[in-house]
Amino acid sequence: MGQDGRARDGRDRAGRAFWLKQLHRWHWISSAMCLVGMLLFAATGITLNHAARIEAKPRTEHREASLPAPLLRALAGEDERKGVALPAVVADWIRGSIDVDVAGRPADWSADEIYLSMPRPGGDAWLSIDRTNGKLEAERISRGWISYLNDLHKGRNAGPVWGWFIDLFALACVVFSATGLLLLKMHAAQRGATWPLVAFGLVLPLVLALIFIH
């Protein structure tokens, strides 16, 4: 090999070493970021797949109260509104009296009732106020931790911040998988089973879907 060939070979080795270093760095960073989330989503994937076999025992809490006359006057009227929050003073009184946080939550106002639906991961809740006499009823239903984690898996009633987290988590998983694939490519020459295993991971779900899903 001539001097030019050795120089070119040295540059190739340096380039390969650089990319290996970068891929390993991004692979371990993304794996560290994904680790807990991947364990959570993998575990809840199993519980969701067997949801019919996992018995949930909902726990229901029902509370009642009556709004003081001054606060009832703040809700007086026969107007109908959609998605309008309760006045802050009323929301504060409800939180202090029955420990239900309705501040800023959209409510549906009819001529005789105000109704708030408050679904949440692993449960549900609602609150109603009679605009004529101030009678207040609230109910909170909890279906347990498994249901809570299952709903987090689906992003159900978890709010926009959790939705942003799922997007960022998915992006980190893409980086983890893509860097892993590139590392497989760079090491495939020394590991003959690499591409057959990758192909098996692709073909198996396709075959199962074509044969057993109708």
UniProtKB/TrEMBL annotation:
Pfam families: PepSY_TM_like_2
Entry keyword Secreted: no
Keyword Transport belongs to the record: no
Keyword tags: Membrane, Transmembrane, Transmembrane helix
Stretches that traverse the bilayer: 26-48, 161-183, 195-213
Protein name: PepSY-associated TM region
Organism of provenance: Dyella marensis
